[in-house]
Amino acid sequence: MNNHDLPRWATAFVMPVLNLLSALLVAALVIYMLGESPAESLGILINSAVVNPEGLSYTLFYASTFIFTGLAVSIAMQAGLFNIGAEGQMYFGGLGLTLAMLAFDSSLPWWLLLPVGMLGAALFGALWSFLPGYLQAKRGSHIVVTTIMFNFISASLMNFVIVKYLVPAGEQNPASRAFADAAAMPLLNQWLPVLGETPLNISFFIAIIALVIYGVVTTRSAWGFKLRATGLNQHAAHYAGIRISKMIITVMLISGALAGLGSVNAIMGSTHYLSLNFVNGAGFVGIAIALMGRQHPLGIFLSSVLFGALIQGGFDLSLEKPNIPIETFIFIQGLIILFCGAMENFYAPAIARLLKRKG
Amino acid sequence: MQPAVEFRGISKHFGAVKANTDVSFAIAKGSIHGLVGENGAGKSTLMSILYGYYRADGGEILLDGQVQHIRTSQEAIRLGIGMVHQHFMLVENMTVLDNVMLGTEGGFKLAAHRAETEKKLREICDRYRLDVDPLATIHDLSVGAQQRVEILKQIYRSANILILDEPTAVLTAQETESLFEILRLFKEQGKTIILITHKLQEILDITDTVTVMRGGRVIGAVPTASTSKEELANMMVGRPIENNLPRAPYKPGAPVLEVRELQLQDKQGVKLLRDLNFTLRAGEIVAIAGVSGNGQSELMEILSGMRLPTSGQLDYQGKPLPFAGRHDADGLPLAFRELGIAHVPEDRLRDGVIKAFSVMHNTIFGYQDKLKNRWGLLDFKAIARRCADLMKAFDVRPNNHDLSIGLLSGGNQQKVVIAREVLAQPRLMLVGQPTRGVDIGTIESIHTQLLKLRDEGVAILLVSVELEEVRALADRILVMCGGAITGELKIEEFDTTRIGLLMGGMHKS
Questions:
Q1: Distance between CA atoms of residues A132 and B486, nearest Å
Q2: Does A8 touch chain B (CB under 8 A)?
Q3: In DSSP terms, which residues pair with B62 in a beta bridge?
Q4: Domain contains B380
Q5: What's the pLDDT at A3?
Q6: Beta-carbon neighbour count of residue A52 at 10 Å?
Q7: Is residue B367 part of a domain?
Q8: Which of B330, B350, B360, B373 to mutate against chain A (most A CBs within 10 Å)?
Q9: Between chains, do A236 and B351 touch, taking CB under 8 Å as contact?
Q10: Do A239 and B331 touch (CB under 8 A)?
């Protein structure tokens, strides 16, 4: 589709940066119209999201979840499947994780609880993506439609399960009981006191390991080769003998499992209990991350950190500047999706012209 | 007399690619002018400039001695230029009349205009002996008749200069002959015809003058009577072309593939293949001739495992092909590949390659599971070596394996596909339209490779709509029409007329 034939540094670096700057420019305009100084606001945002160690810690904490949802959407995208359902899959993964913790948190040590929790989260996430994958592979039901529906179903189902079964007797809060201390992820502030009372935990490293595995599998394994072939040209994939229905189901299972794993950081790393709507849009942010990061491991990492920074910085900004509501973050996020996703190649013709004149 | 069309110094660049460089030649009024050249020689670009799709960077076009600036195709039509594309621009479920009227309705009230147009169409059909019923629906018409509708459309829009882009690619020999009769009639009526083709025999048969292009330039513009096929081919490619490639004597071995009573129906119950029976032996090339769309594609799909047959006995090296117990063909081609059946698909961009993948990635496509290192990952060192050898052996250009294969010319893409399949050392090779959209020089090299494979004892089943190709490669010829085999010939019995009749299903009369 990109018929401008630009060098890789331009498409992989210059264009995303230009797109991002455009989004920030529009955001600055809106902040100006709200009666605040864009420069000062940006200063606050950057300071509280990146410069301040506690802020940076929060940024990376949010990013740890986003890396998983971003990976979930990316791997499905490699097979040509637009998985809109990471939100519901992560939510359902949270249920798997919680059930595992409620069952084992008093009997197992922390280093066993972590894999058990991850397994529960991955399993339930995969379970939630299995049906959409199966329906796409065997019945041709479009994955976008089914995964959207499954988001709604999971929201209702979780409502029911939490309120009916998981709320401890006598509690008003729609959440499960808190897990035992053994089920808490080791926090990084144990080793780095400068991070203060922040929830950044070893999930961050697990997320990075997941990124590396993703990168190796998609670009260097035969399975990844077949995955990408299926995504680019199903006719040719069939000709090559790739079992397309199996591929679709498998990749959707993996995608759901990755989304489910996003709940490990959110629950075991921070709240230590399952609460209503704990996902809070992380699945949808995953879509933006996959688009902006172009399904590349490094791109996914950078965009996850960016979105983490926007949440963290945006939160502090709204505290300091009462004129700027917290929703401004959602607005900026929308702008980034608009510029980096929908208008991805907006600057391509201009860059092509510029290069042509020089060359 | 003023020439009908004159190109003066036409140049057109696309980025660094010089599609046309200083193209100058003239076409006399009331003549048939042939335009030949390899793919990428600049013929299509030149015609697109004439038809108003592109604007030239330099130079001018004169029509009847007047300089014209043709900016849009509407303007070209107004100036009396008509173009018949290789792919018909017809609405399949509308009548001939409606198709001709489309875009020239001339007002809100349709009925009166309809009647008038129908009358005019019948006049044109009579005058040019175009055998077309204005009230027939397009999808009921044969390919040849559909093409006549396209021509009719141009005449109705009062075209005096008719551009035909590869008009005979989809026609039988008989249909081609009747098309040529129509063209000769046009010429008598003073119309000018530009014929783009890569079939040199047709150039000799029908044109008055011929222009040869190569690399965006005019290499020669000569009267047809003063030239020969060999000379034209030589001018097109820039070196002499060998017509009769060396081949070992015909010594067929044991049967590799035996097809008995093969049937195929689609979901609506339409019979696509009817009762096919044939045997293919080691060390022979059996060519299936026929107009495309007569069951050849379906046969190849079944034999490569891409599609399940409805019924029939298919034995490969004495054992049945693994169709039993399958509900769909998902993943089946892999099993066929492991049996030693290689497949060069006829639609290479749809099936044969992944356009966005590099040349190197495409050289392992379908065989990726065999090239792993000890970590279970793709062994890119070995793959790069293998790719370099392959590109050298098959002369794939440009010699850069990181390039997306979509950026290569059709001929070089095809070389990659054939090389990949040859490298798998198959015992049965299915080859569909190996030289479609491929230029003469590359055709020669692809034919050489296929003959080498045959001499090494591989059984080759070739599907081709080009009789020239069938003649150059086949040991035996099967002719298909309407999903059935209508005849079999040995290569010694090669006879264009007879094959043409069989292709048209007229073998019984």
A1: 48
A2: no
A3: B6, B67
A4: no
A5: 44
A6: 17
A7: no
A8: B330
A9: yes
A10: no
